[in-house]
Amino acid sequence: MITTTGLRKVYHSRGRETVALDGVDLHVREGEVFGVLGRSGAGKSTLIRCVNMLERPSSGTVQVAGQDLTALAGGSRRANAELRAARSRIGMVFQHFNLLSSRTVQDNVELPLEILGMSGAERSRKAGELLDLVGLADKARSYPAQLSGGQKQRVGIARALAGDPKVLLSDEATSALDPETTRSILRLLRDLNRQLGLTVLLITHEMDVVKAVCDSAALMKGGRVVESGTVPELLATPGSRLARELFPVGGEPSAPGRTVVDLTFHGETTTQPVISQLSRTYNIDISILGAAVETVGERQIGRMRIELPGRFEDNVVPIGFLREQGLQVDVAPVAGADGTATRDEENTK
Ligand SMILES: Nc1ncnc2c1ncn2[C@@H]1O[C@H](COP(=O)(O)OP(=O)(O)OP(=O)(O)O)[C@@H](O)[C@H]1O
Ligand SMILES: [Mg+2]
């Protein structure tokens, strides 16, 4: 539904060049909720602004719903009209709502419909429908200042849906909201995704957001996508940073010189018999340091952190045994003398 190829964006300001996007290839499938994560300055907002052409990419292409938007930009008058039409079918939700304070809720939602050239009666009917969809029918005559943050964001979402978009873009839509309101807005986005078949591309700082609603996710760093895939795919990728951040299994080794192993198991495979078999076969004591079971989509995914006596070199055979049982096995980095991990452990925040 959304495909970017080799997307680059270079900003020039006061004689300085900033490469905000450095060759981004992203693919968002129709009907999915796709989350983009990354630290501040990674290029997330630039990416989303290039997807709806609020920002002209320096090079590369953006396709939305089969249409190459980059080819339309800066073209003939006809191409520009096509670009405007295409953009009206891409809804955008903002962190700070961007509502007009002098207009009522109803009028805020009617504004884009007015721009689309819809007649007065039609506008009012459509805005009413949209407010109903986001659960705010009773607030039509209120002004933004009379609403809570969550209600304001619902108006923002209703307004974004005015052009009957196929795609909804959201840049940190919930980061100004408290956790409970965040959950209710995420539920709304999820419902709209299901009911309307809306494809949602959302940017967030919060792993919980990805866990709650995303089918797929990508991690950005320095203007590039460094990881991307469906959540189950990410979980099945050894060493995936997103998987580790999404489903952390805590637990510190009980003493130095031991091997810590993270196991991931999907659906039917349960670790319980595997762990006791391992213990019996190799006559070793195994400690469970942490465990969690998560539901991703409709599937259950379990993670367990275990500790084996001895160093990695002493445990090559038992680790091989675990892999043979079809478990995904990640050996945790060894702590150095100062207690810091010797492998590059980076946070995505
Ligand atoms: N209009 C601009 N002019 C010059 N540089 C810009 C402009 N917009 C963004 N940048 C730079 O591009 C880089 C990426 O910025 P961007 O806003 O996309 O990051 P982000 O991932 O959205 O960060 P945050 O999480 O803080 O919102 C940053 O180095 C930023 O300073
Ligand atoms: Mg941003």
Please name the defining characteristics of this protein.
alpha/beta; Alpha-Beta Plaits; about 30% strand; binds adenosine-5'-triphosphate; six-stranded mixed beta sheet; Rossmann fold; about 350 residues; disordered C terminus; four-stranded antiparallel beta sheet; elongated
Tell me about this structure.
Part of the ABC transporter FtsEX involved in cellular division. Has ATPase activity. One of its GO terms (molecular function) is ATP hydrolysis activity. This is ABC transporter ATP-binding protein. InterPro entries: AAA+_ATPase, ABC_transporter-like_ATP-bd, ABC_transporter-like_CS, ACT-like_dom_sf, MetN_ABC, MetN_ABC_transporter-like, NIL_domain, P-loop_NTPase. This protein has about 350 residues and is α/β, with parallel strands linked by helices. It folds into two domains: about 1-235, P-loop containing nucleotide triphosphate hydrolases (Rossmann fold, 3-Layer(aba) Sandwich), CATH 3.40.50.300; about 245-330, ACT domain (Alpha-Beta Plaits, 2-Layer Sandwich), CATH 3.30.70.260. Helix content is about 35%, strand content about 30%. The chain has twelve helices and 14 strands. Strands 6-7-8-3-9-10 form a six-stranded mixed sheet, sandwiched between helices. Strands 2-1-4-5 form a four-stranded antiparallel sheet. Helix 4 runs parallel beside helix 6 (about 150-160), helix 5 packs across helix 6 (about 150-160) and helix 6 (about 150-160) packs parallel to helix 7. The longest helix is centred in the middle third of the chain and has 18 residues, at about 180-195.
